[in-house]
Write a structure and sequence with these properties.
By secondary structure, the chain is mainly alpha-helical. Helix content is 83%, strand content 0%. Helix 5 runs antiparallel to helix 6. Keywords: Membrane, Transmembrane, Transmembrane helix.
């Protein structure tokens, strides 16, 4: 959160393209050239989408009136939502409530991600039936990354809901 959005987007894109190149190169077995080209195309598309989404989310954190949040205030707002605890700073608290509302609205993303991992598991099973020698790689990715990511998103949703409830309770007590 302390880095500008475009730098975070590039970092995420490089990590995504690198892992995609590794998966394509090992899974498809068609050589590293096509794998790298496919990963670069996928990485550019991913960077564009993620950077726009991060910019929109970060813009929503800033107050309507007054100066934008500092990098430290943005980090405090994210941590308040991540821990499900309100902040004493009113600017940070307003940003945290906005972020919590975004996370609660994104509940459908958890379901879509679970469906995506189910699809990858189906592809891995299809590779196994077709006797592709690298089916285990995709299956391992699904087993290792799927449950923790989905559990993390569910935890984020639960903590965002807790923060919103605390904020509403605090607003009602005033």
């Amino acid at each position: 959160m302390r880095w500008p959005v475009w730098q975070r987007g590039v970092l995420i894109g490089v990590l995504y393209a690198g892992s995609l190149a590794l998966i394509f190169g090992v899974m498809l077995g068609s050589g590293w050239g096509p794998a790298v080209v496919g990963a670069l195309v996928g990485g550019v598309i991913f960077v564009a989408g993620m950077t726009l989404a991060m910019a929109r989310a970060e813009k929503a954190l800033n107050p309507v009136a007054g100066p934008p949040l500092t990098a430290d205030e943005r980090v405090q707002a994210v941590r308040a939502v991540d821990h499900g605890q309100p902040s004493d700073n009113p600017r940070v608290q307003a940003a945290a409530v906005t972020l919590a509302r975004q996370r609660v609205r994104q509940r459908i993303g958890i379901v879509l991600l679970a469906v995506l991992f189910g699809f990858f598991a189906l592809v891995a099973a299809t590779f196994a039936v077709l006797e592709n020698p690298r089916w285990w790689l995709l299956a391992a990715i699904v087993v290792v990354t799927g449950p923790p990511i989905i559990a993390g998103l569910r935890r984020q949703h639960r903590r965002a809901t807790t923060l919103l409830a605390a904020a509403e309770k605090g607003a009602a007590g005033r």
